[in-house]
């Protein structure tokens, strides 16, 4: 991609200790997006201690549109996603998990839906079908999603899917906290934007083990839910500001 071509889409991938998944996933992202939009790929290496940094360095030598950010120590998935989006050059940003369970083949559909939605749609969220997690993890997610939806009424059945497309300016409006990525639909609605949904097919990870849990700690998840509920309750309509000349 020419450096003179404006970037339309930034793909943000948070990773921690995913050395074996780096090359296969980047290859799939490129195959899905080449020829559609001018794009960049931003990997956020969240304090990895394996060969993730080396694999990313090798890929950067081959791919001029690959950028890499590094956290000195692991700060969590929300922090990694935020770092990537803050650094993004594209007005549209798509995210996916770095473990390979999110299929990049769905990226064009997510991005096209965001583009088509215009100023009205702030987020396009992937909704997983045919999940490949363990029975216990699927049960845990199902219960957590039902509780979240009952409290926040965000109309989203699956906030844990890493496949999302969001307008960068909308994301940067969000109040940041650890765990933000799990509550994006409710917070985007809080700002007055619509959300579109795309069914995506989950698949097993290529290699390695899970590094980011759905709710790493139960009590943290409950406190986050209460905090987001409070933010929604305290939101007032955003006034229209007109410059006086």
Automatic annotation (TrEMBL):
Signal keyword on record: no
Source species: Bradyrhizobium aeschynomenes
Keyword field contains Transmembrane: yes
Pfam families, sorted: Glycos_transf_2
Top-level taxonomic group: Bacteria
Domain annotation Glycosyltransferase 2-like: ranges: 10-171
The protein, known as: Glycosyltransferase family 2 protein
Keywords for the protein's UniProt record, in alphabetical order: Cell membrane, Glycosyltransferase, Lipopolysaccharide biosynthesis, Membrane, Transferase, Transmembrane, Transmembrane helix
CDD domains, per database record: DPM_DPG-synthase_like
